[in-house]
Amino acid sequence: MESAERMFALDVVRGLQAAGHEAVFAGGCVRDELLGLAPDDYDVATSALPEQVQALFPRSLAVGASFGVIDVIRKVSGRYLKVQVATFRNDGPYLDGRRPSGVVFSSAREDALRRDFTINGMFLDPVSERLLDFVGGREDLARGVLRAIGDPDQRFSEDRLRLLRAVRMAARFGMEICPQTAAAVARHASAITVVSAERVAEELRKMLKGARRSRAAALLAELDLLHRVLPEAGHLVRVPEELEKALGALGRLESSAGAMAALAVLLDGVDEAVAIPMSARLRFSNQERDLLRWLLRHSDFLSASEGMRPSRLYPVLAHAGAADLIAIGKARVPGAAGVAHAAQVLASLPREVLCPSPWVTGNDLIAMGMKPGPAIKEVLDSLLAAQMDGELADLDAAHALARSMVA
């Protein structure tokens, strides 16, 4: 059964073709369908000019009309779907390593030749089911080879982010980067610093998720990119044994663990304080920054969890990053007893045990005659620890102990 996204994109293609324009699926969605994958989204390329696209589809947005890009919108089952429609074009000179100075509308063949990699340069007519492959993308896909279209030096000079995209795509699809393309990546690696932090961070998030992240990190190191995008992990490049250790741990990291967990593996042994300037540089969200810092701070915590008092262990296991922390521990030292114990505790105890409601509150202490101030927190922490460690039978016992501490 076709997805709502594909059906919408197919309707867009049919509408353009019915009006006398050439229209095809373009780029990543074609690649994914050839691989038997469900595309995240669908892009359409067409001979229609932007104003012609908008005339056919009034419910649209000119998000990049000067580059020939129109977003066509449709509401389906209470949610909005978007198909990006771009006019076939040639790009003018790239002056900033990011975007062309201008475009000239052109043909499908010329549009394919301006794209980054052959596996992304194919078009598919979903009506006739005819593949338009001007760059040898289908053959490269079958061979498992990632190859830049045309001159790789020119492709990477046009958009420096393609250096990271080469790594991510090769890792994601289990492909080898062809020698000429790989050599060009290494030659241009130092230029990655001109790419905005947000774009670099987004590529890192994508390549550090899922089962292929070890391969991605290995390629980053091999192609002279790792220490440029993550100077905090530069020690891995300088010490091959440390790199091998980190790659092994990344390869064992559960696929459910997130990008920050993978980053924590690469930063093993690095002080948690690095998370603050690094997160600022890469424009990480506050949530990402706090999680990374917490993971680094607790990197060795679980090794001694077997004999740990509940009041010390449970708050860590109640944290939102606990599953990632356990996954990191398993990846670093497979079979470690402390990590296995923590995993068993997390799986067996409900959250109300790991993070119980305190039997005594600050208001209770004030009612008992304690003056507001920092000392209240110290007493509350002690009471909650006693509660979690089973040293208090019930609420009455907790209040009795509280009164003795206040007196």
Explain what this protein looks like in three dimensions.
The chain is of the alpha+beta class and 407 residues long. Among the domains are: 1-135, Beta Polymerase, domain 2 (2-Layer Sandwich); 357-406, no CATH class. It has 23 helices and 11 strands. The protein has helices at residues 4-18, 28-34, 50-56, 108-113, 137-143, 152-158, 162-172, 179-188, 197-207, 213-222, 226-229, 234-238, 240-252, 259-266, 275-281, 286-297, 310-317, 322-332, 337-348, 351-354, 362-367, 374-388, 395-406; strands spanning 23-26, 43-46, 60-64, 69-76, 79-87, 89-91, 103-105, 123-125, 130-132, 145-146, 176-177. It is elongated. The protein starts with a helix and ends with a helix.
Keywords:
23 helices; two-stranded antiparallel sheet; Beta Polymerase, domain 2; 407 residues; alpha+beta; seven-stranded mixed sheet; elongated
Helix and strand arrangement:
Elements: H1 4-18, E1 23-26, H2 28-34, E2 43-46, H3 50-56, E3 60-64, E4 69-76, E5 79-87, E6 89-91, E7 103-105, H4 108-113, E8 123-125, E9 130-132, H5 137-143, E10 145-146, H6 152-158, H7 162-172, E11 176-177, H8 179-188, H9 197-207, H10 213-222, H11 226-229, H12 234-238, H13 240-252, H14 259-266, H15 275-281, H16 286-297, H17 310-317, H18 322-332, H19 337-348, H20 351-354, H21 362-367, H22 374-388, H23 395-406
Parallel strand pairs: 2-5, 10-11
Antiparallel strand pairs: 1-2, 1-8, 3-4, 4-5, 6-7, 8-9
Instruction: Give the strand content.
Output: 5-15%
Q: Round the mean pLDDT to the nearest integer and report it.
A: 94
Number of helices: 23
Shape: elongated
**Estimated structural class:** alpha+beta
Percent of residues in helical segments? 40-55%
Q: Please tally the β strands and state the result.
A: 11
Report the major sheet.
7 strands, mixed
The radius of gyration computed from the alpha-carbon positions, rounded to a whole number of angstroms, is 27 Å
Distance between the termini: 72 Å
Low-pLDDT residue spans: none
The neighbouring-strand order within the major sheet is 3-4-5-2-1-8-9
- Under the CATH scheme, the architecture of the domain at 1-135 is 2-Layer Sandwich
What is the fourth-level CATH superfamily of the domain at 1-135? Answer: Beta Polymerase, domain 2
